[in-house]
Design brief:
42% of the residues lie in helices and 12% in strands. It has 266 residues and is α/β, with parallel strands linked by helices.
């Protein structure tokens, strides 16, 4: 996974571990920091050590390497799609409908009377980030509200990002300051995830902006800490318990399938 510093991935890891133990398996957790070389090294080393199943919560950049590991007997389950027909067989994908998540967030705010709704997103480098951005745009068009306003890391020169999950709350803090300086301030904001939303809440409160009275914020993921902020964050729940159960069911089915290729001994 990218990093357990993002509470969503930490909660997902705990749920995966519990689901795996119920089936008699053990889980090793590797933090890739979204670095392709770390991702590849972890996958190769784990399979070499005899790990039989790999669950990838970050995007797998090296599809050829994954094909090689599958031929060696590894079972893969992904939490991100690989794009249009990458030609990889025997791989399962378990994920929520990310576009629908932002569509529901827009619908909620439109139902409350908001028309100027901004979307705050880290650089859309991954499929789920792209899907959430697309869902926001599709929902605005459906409500005939135009293209909306998207703020990314590139729009905030003062924010120096390493594209690491640890920076997401800092990005949200910087994005809130950016919004306060806009000549036409949005009436509501949707954040790509809860970490960004929590950073925004902190910055708005520092500037005396009342939430949700002056500007409501909607996040995505429903990490546990989001209900303990003041005010509690409105957020779209990602069903991580069901995702974990489904992922473990898939990887165990692949591992226990006697028709799969036999792993090559190294």
């Amino acid at each position: 996974m990218p990093s357990v510093v993002n509470p969503y991935f930490g909660e997902l890891a705990v749920a995966i571990d519990a689901a795996a133990q119920r089936k008699g398996y053990r889980v090793l957790v590797c933090n890739t920091q979204r670095q392709p070389e770390r991702e590849l090294a972890f996958a190769q080393e784990l399979v070499a050590y005899g790990v039989r199943g790999v669950l990838a919560a970050s995007v797998l950049h090296n599809v050829d390497a994954m094909r090689t590991l599958i031929r060696r007997g590894a079972a893969f389950v992904l939490f991100e799609t690989l794009g249009a027909d990458p030609g990889v067989e025997r791989v399962d994908v378990v994920a929520m409908n990310n576009a629908l998540a932002t569509e529901k967030a827009v619908d909620c705010l439109v139902g409350l009377g908001h028309e100027a709704i901004a979307y705050i997103t880290a650089t859309p480098l991954t499929p789920h980030r792209v899907a959430r951005l697309q869902g926001y745009r599709d929902a605005l068009r459906r409500h005939r509200l135009g293209e909306g306003g998207v703020i990314t890391e590139e729009d905030i020169p003062s924010h120096s990002s390493t594209r690491n999950d640890a920076d997401l709350a800092h990005f949200g803090h910087a994005a809130a300051a950016h919004i306060l300086n806009m000549p036409a301030r949005p009436s509501a904001v949707i954040a790509m995830n809860d970490l960004i939303a929590l950073g925004m809440i902190s910055a708005f409160r520092e500037q005396g902006v009342r939430i949700p009275d002056e500007i409501p914020i909607v996040g995505i993921d429903d990490i546990r800490i989001s209900s303990f902020t003041f005010p509690a964050l409105t957020t779209v729940r990602q069903p991580y318990l069901q995702i974990a159960e489904s992922a473990i069911d898939c990887v165990c089915a692949r591992i226990e399938d006697t028709t799969r290729c036999n792993p090559t001994q190294h």
